[in-house]
Amino acid sequence: MKKIILAVSILMQIPTYSLANDSTGYVGTGGVSYLKNAHVAMQSENLFISKKLIKVDYLYKNLSSKDVTETVLFPLPRIDNFFEADFAHTEALLKSFKIIVDGKNIQPEMHVRTFIQRNEKSPLIDTTDVFKQCGFSQTDMLNPWMRNNDDYSYFVDKLKQCKQPQIQKILANFKKDDEIPWSSQVIYSWKQTFKANALTKIQHQYQPLVGGSVALYPDEYNQNFCMDTQFKQGLKKARAENSPFNALSYILTTGANWAKPIENFKLTIERDKNELVSFCWNGKVEKISPTQFEMTKRNFVPKQDLDIIFVRVK
Prior knowledge:
signal, DUF4424 family protein, DUF4424
């Protein structure tokens, strides 16, 4: 029995903040997703989120009497090759990314894809094969992540000099001096067998991509982060209404794609000692230490994602 499952850990790009030039965007990070398979259920998910580490422990059960072998895909977000709109720690994320299955490290295969999109209203064009035909190496295609070459003109010139018909057709939509906005996506993959009537433990961890800005405007961000009265009072008491902040997003809703609801779900969010934290959560939030908050659910079907803000206080 073979299908393809999609393990979405940093799946979609959240709109970047445009408060100031030194603002950085943040991308949604998510858990393992699945393309609706009636045979594999998520028995438990233990999720830990901080600015330095995201770690998830899953326990899956194959409900059938046959082994289920899948190709697992773990896509990271698209990152623009435009360094003034920087995403923090892109290189660190790749270096820190780990997958552990039943106690053994898995070395996934890396696939690098490139895209060109003229603007937000234009279609997103997959240019992976075109880039390769134009002589782009994997190192070149990884540049938005690894930042090996900060010479933007190098890539533009390489594209404009390429005689491949498809790239010339794409470039015909740009003026002579226009920048060519291209992006790069990393997708990891590996084969995974869920043994018949057995449990499989999968863990992944990485350093998240964290954005933020030099100044907070609570009214503008209230809807994203559910800043309640207590949080706002904390900001006021610390005179931190316009303090620097960090933010990250985690995609929970992919966890609804398994055979059953998540039987046991636990979420722990950690902040630094000199920070206030706010996020949206439908249920009880328990403070288990000076810096950690814990939430649990039984038979959990996630219906919304997490946006978390960390505000520095004096």
